[in-house]
Write a structure and sequence with these properties.
Shape of chain A: globular
Number of domains of chain A: 2
Oligomer: heterodimer
CATH architecture of the largest domain in chain A: Orthogonal Bundle
Structural class of chain B: alpha/beta
Organism (chain B): Halovivax asiaticus JCM 14624
Order of helices and strands of chain A: HHHHHHHHHHHH
Bound molecules: adenosine-5'-diphosphate, iron/sulfur cluster, magnesium ion
Helix content of chain A: over 70%
CATH superfamily of the largest domain in chain A: MetI-like
Membrane topology (chain B): Peripheral membrane protein
Helix content of chain B: 25-40%
Distance between the termini of chain A: 15 Å
Strand content of chain A: under 5%
Strand order of the largest sheet of chain B: 7-8-9-3-10-11-13-12
Order of helices and strands of chain B: EEEHEEEHEHHHHHEHEHEEHHHEEH
Number of helices of chain A: 12
Radius of gyration of chain B: 21 Å
Largest sheet of chain B: 8 strands, mixed
Protein name (chain B): Nickel import system ATP-binding protein NikD
InterPro entries (chain B): AAA+_ATPase (IPR003593), ABC_Ni/Peptide_Import (IPR050388), ABC_transporter-like_ATP-bd (IPR003439), ABC_transporter-like_CS (IPR017871), Oligopep_ABC_C (IPR013563), P-loop_NTPase (IPR027417)
Catalytic activity (chain B): Ni(2+)(out) + ATP + H2O = Ni(2+)(in) + ADP + phosphate + H(+)
Shape of chain B: globular
CATH topology of the largest domain in chain A: MetI-like fold
Largest interface: A-B, 20 and 30 residues
Number of strands of chain A: 0
């Protein structure tokens, strides 16, 4: 019950933050030099009156605060405006692109968490033994190598040289041919994973390395806690101590880290999508910035901000759920 | 002599091999615990009390190791080994396996209570959950039975509204209440021996008094034996039946509590007693022990206390005193490891006195050294 109240409270708190973000984004985008209508019509003979018509059509002739208000109210009613470049509603343009990004980011995260936590625990358990040293070197490499570089290397080795994986594009799980039977669906999923593998590793390595390092440190710390000593003194087995007593306490900082990792992952997704030629939100953002496609840039950036803020909130709630010491910020 | 002891420790040695050298944290101690008694281990911080306690459960932190000695409990050998010629250890036959010690000794035979009630409980599990886990592990109780036992025990140690508090987390309890929870934990496992390692050091004096009274009462009721570790002679006076005084890894004096206070055998014990705050003395009467205890890596030669001992003589620097019986009271030995007693025939009386810290000859040394006293020893 308290947790539910806390959840609502945290979401309510997020509203002003998101509003602030949209204002800043809006001002930024509208203050950058370059006129979208001129870019759109570059190289064509266009009359002044037609330019004025285009400005009016895309709403660029009205004062900035009116345009902001339009944008904001549109956002809540699902009308994100029209893309100048694609000449289609922004919502349509984005819907086509959000799938690949979510698939990429979530699978990279899953990969990171699923590998990093056991490896971190193992490293803590075998502290200062060879396997610990190896994992630390790998982690150091992981945190200090940019994801796009890892992506390029993966492409060169596993796509170009060995030809094991495709070098570009993603296949969406829900894009299976409609007449596919069970086995057809199976092979479709194999294809999905086949495409996903390299970009997932490229994007997930940084997360994996960061989580693993923190997991290791936290586990080492936790294993030295008095409560672990007490558990040992009462005959609890090392296995249970590792999996339960030390583990639960050690996860608290890891949860925060995973949440914050979402922002770096979203940033990394932009580059990974470029390297692997994936038609996701990241590439849409970059293309739209180049095209001065205000409406799209604004909407994509807002969506990314929303995803990020939601990620942070979920992190906080997860933390509050796991750590009973968290006070619920209600001034009790 | 009395009946067979519950626990017998003989010549126990526990060492830590570190970069700076071998820390001889526990260096050949021997003592017994009989059924139903509270045996104190008292000494300054760093004397080796905690390492000794944990050694009894064969739980020594890395890089530590029990290198020699024998620990027998109810006729079973928890540990027995000898130092070989080349400094290694050789386990003897019939010693319980590590797994047996974990399953059959820890918790259900020998339970512990630690110093810091804030850190000893796991912050992410409920009080009840933790109690129940240990009960289920160490007794033939499961599920609801274990839960009921846990709640009964919480009530027994004086936690009001035990049923409701069962589901609360450690941070919702005060320090004193947490220490009660730890006591409940130990008793709930129905061990024959409880090792309490400075369980009241982190508490304020009022709460300490309450906890001591509680333990006194419960000890009478359940007949459990205790090893009570403390640096405070006041606590010893209040709760212990017999006392072992530890200095730098060794037991320098061992006696029933009244005997220790009134027929003090060892200058270190005397120094501890003189530094103890008492109602009949003002603070200015307190006589803190001069200097700090040296490192256990490189203990002083001869008597380890000689650099700080007011009675030190030349012979104390050259010969190492082993504890020897100086008296017997109610069938118990009074042992002391000090040459002042006649049982040691090493020529103490003829030996010239030593200049050292305790004589106050060195003003500089006096200032530089930290003042350690029974009540204020940094712990
Ligand atoms: N893990 C360890 N590594 C190295 N030395 C240790 C370790 N634990 C304890 N010691 C040393 O053992 C000695 C005794 O420590 P301890 O038993 O904790 O003292 P006490 O409980 O009497 O205050 C000290 O000199 C301490 O530095
Ligand atoms: S043996 Fe000597 S130095 Fe040691 S306590 Fe006795 S008198 Fe002091
Ligand atoms: Mg200690």
């Amino acid at each position: 019950m308290r947790l539910l109240r806390y959840t609502l409270f945290r979401f309510a708190q997020a509203i002003p933050v998101l509003l602030g973000i949209t204002v800043i984004l809006f001002l930024f985008i509208n203050m950058t030099p370059g006129d979208p209508i001129r870019i759109m019509t570059a190289g064509q003979e266009v009359s002044e009156s037609h330019l004025a018509y285009l400005e009016a059509r895309y709403g660029l002739d009205r004062p900035i605060h009116v345009r902001y208000w339009d944008y904001l109210s549109g956002f809540f009613t699902g009308d994100l405006g029209r893309s100048i470049h694609y000449n289609r509603p922004v919502s349509e343009v984005m819907m086509a692109r959000i799938g690949p990004t979510l698939l990429l980011v979530l699978s990279a995260f899953l990969f990171a968490v699923v590998t990093a936590i056991p490896l971190g625990i193992l490293a803590a358990k075998r502290r200062n033994q060879p396997s610990d040293h190896i994992s630390r070197i790998v982690a150091l490499f992981g945190v200090s190598t940019p994801s796009f570089w890892i992506g390029i290397m993966l492409i060169i080795i596993f796509a170009v040289q060995l030809g094991w994986f495709p070098s570009a594009g993603l296949v969406m799980p829900w894009d299976a041919p409609s007449d596919a039977g069970l086995s057809g669906y199976f092979w479709h999923m194999v294809d999905v994973l086949h495409h996903l593998f390299l970009p997932m590793i490229a994007l997930g390595t940084l997360q994996m390395a960061t989580i693993m390092r923190v997991e290791r440190t936290q586990m080492i710390d936790s294993l030295q806690g008095e409560y672990v000593k007490l558990a040992r003194a009462y005959g609890v087995s090392e296995r249970t101590i590792l999996r339960k007593h030390a583990f639960q306490v050690a996860q608290l900082p890891v949860i925060t880290l995973v949440g914050l990792g979402l922002s770096t992952a979203l940033g990394g997704a932009v580059l990974t999508e470029t390297v692997f030629n994936i038609n996701g939100m990241g590439r849409l953002l970059i293309d739209s910035i180049q095209q001065k496609d205000y409406q799209v840039v604004m909407s994509v950036a807002t969506i990314l901000a929303v995803i990020f803020v939601i990620g942070v909130i979920i992190t906080d709630i997860a933390y509050a759920y796991v750590d009973p010491r968290v006070t619920y910020g209600e001034g009790e | 002599m009395r009946d067979k002891p519950l626990l017998r420790v003989e010549n126990l040695k526990t060492q830590f091999v570190t970069e700076n050298g071998t820390v001889r944290a526990v260096d050949g101690i021997s003592f017994e615990v009989y059924e139903g008694e509270i045996v104190g281990i008292v000494g300054e911080s760093g004397a080796g009390k905690s390492v000794a306690s944990m050694s009894l459960l064969r739980l020594v932190d890395n890089p530590g190791e029990i290198v020699a000695g024998e620990i027998t409990y109810k006729g079973r050998t928890i540990f027995a080994a000898e130092e070989t010629e080349d400094g290694d250890r050789r386990l003897q036959d019939g010693v319980l396996s590590a797994e047996t010690v974990r399953q059959e000794i820890r918790g259900n035979e020998i339970a512990v209570i630690f110093q810091d009630p804030m850190e000893s409980l796991n912050p992410v599990f409920t009080i009840g959950g933790q109690l129940r886990e240990f009960i289920e592990l160490n007794r033939d109780l499961t599920g609801d039975e274990a839960r009921k036992e846990a709640i009964d025990m919480l009530r027994e140690v004086g936690i009001p509204d035990a049923e409701a508090r069962y589901d609360e987390y450690p941070h919702q309890f005060s320090g004193g209440m947490r220490q009660r929870v730890l006591i409940a934990m130990a008793l709930a496992c129905q061990p024959s021996l409880i090792i309490a390692d400075e369980p009241t050091t982190a508490l304020d004096v009022t709460v300490e008094g309450q906890i001591l009274d509680l333990v006194d009462e419960l000890q009478r009721k359940y007949g459990t034996s205790f090893i009570w570790v403390t640096h405070d002679m006041g606590v010893v006076a209040e709760i212990c039946d017999r006392v072992n005084v530890m200095y730098l890894g060794e037991i320098v004096e061992q006696a029933p509590v009244d005997e220790l206070f009134y027929e003090t055998g060892h200058p270190y014990t005397k120094a501890l007693l003189d530094s103890m705050p008492r109602p009949d003395r003002t603070v200015t009467d307190l006589d803190p022990i001069r200097g700090v205890m040296p490192e256990a890596i490189d203990p002083p030669p001869g008597c380890r206390f000689h650099p700080r001992c007011p009675d030190a003589r030349e012979v104390c620097r050259q010969v190492h005193p082993e504890p020897a019986e100086i008296d017997r009271v109610d069938g118990f030995s009074h042992r002391s490891a000090c040459f002042k007693r006649d049982v040691f025939d090493v020529g103490y009386d003829e030996s010239p006195p030593l200049d050292n810290l305790a004589r106050g000859e060195s003003e500089r040394g006096q200032e530089a050294s930290e003042v350690a006293s029974g009540g204020g020893a940094s712990e």
